[in-house]
Amino acid sequence: MVAYNTDKIMITRAIENAMLHAKKKGWRKTYWAFDIHGTLVRPNHKVGEIATEFYPHVIEVMQAISRRSDVVRILYTCSYPNEIEEYLDYFKKFDIVFDYVNENPEVADGCYGYYKDKFYFNVLFEDKAGFNGETDWLEVKKLLSETDN
Fold first, then answer.
1. Which residues contact 72 (CB under 8 A, 6 or more apart)?
2. Is 70 helix (H, G, I), strand (E, B) or coil?
């Protein structure tokens, strides 16, 4: 049974558990999925115009995550294909890069389970799963600065 640090928010517990699990299993990387709206940027609720207002600390944290070779970044979104392209271009302007969009071809079916209908990830950044874009990025920033030292 995994011992959870109850002083941590859900996302930092998830990151710590993923890193710990990877270390125990000898994995060179973990897979992190990132929602856009309500997680990376504040929703603007406008049709035909992508939201571009980042939450506090997103840019610096995502830049740091983008530089990590031990993290595979998956954009996890229900945005339309044309919006996805706009977002990828927009994020790239800030040196925020994603390896995949709504898929993880690195973890094949049968590797850890059945992944034809659901892609594999270790950490999920998603407002509907409890992530708070206003406050949680600072906690992720603190955790990553601790683990980088």
1. 29, 30, 31, 32, 99, 100, 104, 106
2. coil
Q: What one-character DSSP code corresponds to residue 85?
A: H
Cβ contact 39:134 at 8 Å = no
Which of 3.50.50.60, 3.40.50.2300, 1.10.520.10, 3.40.50.1000 is the CATH number of 33-148?
A: 3.40.50.1000
Pairing relationship of beta strands 100-101 and 71-75 according to DSSP bridges:
parallel
pLDDT in tens, the chain (149 residues): 444 444 568 999 999 999 999 999 999 999 999 999 999 999 998 888 999 999 999 999 999 999 999 999 999 999 999 999 999 999 999 999 999 999 999 987 666 677 777 899 999 999 999 999 999 999 999 999 987 65
Tell me the whole-structure pTM to 2 decimals.
Answer: 0.90
Task: Dump strand ranges (E) for the chain.
Answer: 30-34, 71-75, 100-101, 123-125
